[in-house]
Write a structure and sequence with these properties.
Layout: E1 2-6, H1 11-22, E2 26-33, H2 51-64, E3 68-72, H3 74-90, H4 97-116, E4 121-123, E5 129-134, E6 140-145, H5 163-166, E7 169-170, H6 178-187, H7 209-217, E8 222-225, E9 231-235, E10 262-267, E11 272-276, E12 283-293, E13 302-307, E14 315-322, E15 325-334, E16 342-347, E17 350-361
Helix pairs in contact: 1-2, 1-6, 3-4
Main location: cytoplasm
Pfam families: tRNA_Me_trans, tRNA_Me_trans_C, tRNA_Me_trans_M
Function: Catalyzes the 2-thiolation of uridine at the wobble position (U34) of tRNA, leading to the formation of s(2)U34.
Length: about 375
């Protein structure tokens, strides 16, 4: 196969590219330029797409002896990921930009361009597995599964991929642990074998999401209130808060019992942040929209595992789909589930699909 290896400049994508080449594929390395004003050097483990990262990726490609290109997708990234991120927070939701990037950039824009240029597939350094299994018609279908290394498993952020995208995707690291990947990189002579992993939101290099949003949305002073409407403090914009948040509230009125308080809800229409005690955070009903299925959509009520954070716990649940909408009922309550997050559904290690959380509720079953 002719394969585009997405090379970020990190150790994972470097080893993924080398494994695809070793497997006998015709491999071309591609670094995605996602920033319209890329920094020259990486300043921390946060951030990505610096000129330094592009240089690291090029050096790996040179060592492997494969062609290497930089594809400028900064405008598409800004529109589909960054602007979407800003709009979601302004609307009182908490998005996961990594899922949006996988859906809109790496397995849409990148894959579409690769196919248009005559390539067959895209390979990335994500920690997940693709397995082949027969479908009801006796044909072979590709399924997305969790990685062997659960500490690095990234199947959650790949839960937005559909069957057609999975048919054109390779994840060569899914059967390997991170220490083994670094050891392999060192054995291959890659200078980035010990390069720190990037983390958090790649386009907010200093990690200050609230400050970054304030620069783009402006200060919007408002009130922090309890569930009875009593004013407890002020804030600079409800967009800077998310459900489950405890730190940085700056409440001027302490709770009578001294218990900590958490963000229960943000109300963009009135620019209000509502806080309360931890027990008020518990939910066990989730309604999701923008459903994406990694294979056939489930029929009827199915038993699944539900995960609402990239490295969160999988909770036993039942789920059913109705067009673009998914209803999920958890077997027990969990805290801090915010609209805009994604719920990813599993059957064993297999990813069934995902949806964007539109609403949550607490049932009266308990």
């Amino acid at each position: 196969m002719r394969v585009v290896a997405a090379m970020s400049g990190g150790v994972d994508s470097a080893v993924a590219a080398s494994r695809m080449l070793e497997a006998g594929h015709e491999v071309v390395g591609v670094h995605l330029a996602l920033s319209q004003s890329a920094a020259t050097l990486r300043e921390s483990a946060r951030g990505c797409c610096t000129i330094e990262d592009a240089g690291d990726a090029r050096r790996v490609a040179d060592r492997l002896g494969i062609p290497f290109y930089v594809w400028d997708m900064a405008a598409r990234f800004r529109e589909d990921v960054v602007e979407d991120f800003i709009a979601e927070y302004a609307a009182g939701r908490t998005p996961n930009p990594c899922l949006r990037c996988n859906e809109k950039i790496k397995f849409a824009a990148l894959l579409d361009k690769a196919l248009a240029l005559g390539f067959d597939a895209v390979a990335t350094g994500h920690y997940a597995q693709i397995r082949e299994a027969p479908d009801d018609a006796g044909q072979v279908r590709r399924e997305l599964h969790r990685a062997v290394d659960m500490a690095k498993d990234q199947s959650y952020v790949l839960g937005v991929l559909d069957a057609e995208q999975l048919a054109r995707a390779f994840f060569p690291l899914g059967d390997t642990t991170k220490p083994d990947v670094r050891a392999e990189a060192a054995a291959r002579g890659f200078s980035i074998a010990k390069k720190p992993d990037s983390h958090d939101i790649c386009f907010i290099a200093d990690g200050d999401t609230r400050g970054w949003l304030a620069q783009r949305l402006g200060e919007q002073p408002g009130e922090i209130v309890d569930t009875e409407g009593t004013v407890l403090g002020e804030h600079g914009g409800s967009f800077g808060y998310t459900v489950g948040q405890r730190k940085g509230l700056g409440l001027r009125v302490p709770a009578a019992d001294g218990a900590p308080r958490y963000v229960l809800e943000t109300r963009p229409a009135t620019n209000t942040v509502v806080v309360g005690t931890a027990e008020l955070l518990g939910v066990d009903e989730i309604t999701g929209d923008h459903a994406r299925w990694c294979g056939p959509a489930p029929e009827g009520i199915v038993s699944v595992g539900a995960q609402v954070r990239a490295h969160g716990e999988e909770i036993p649940a039942t789920a059913w789909a109705d067009g673009d909408t998914v209803e999920v009922r958890l077997e027990r309550r969990i805290r801090g589930v915010a609209p805009g997050q994604s719920v990813v559904l599993y059957e064993g290690t297999r990813v069934v699909g995902s949806a964007t959380i539109a609403a949550t509720a607490t049932s009266q079953r308990r």
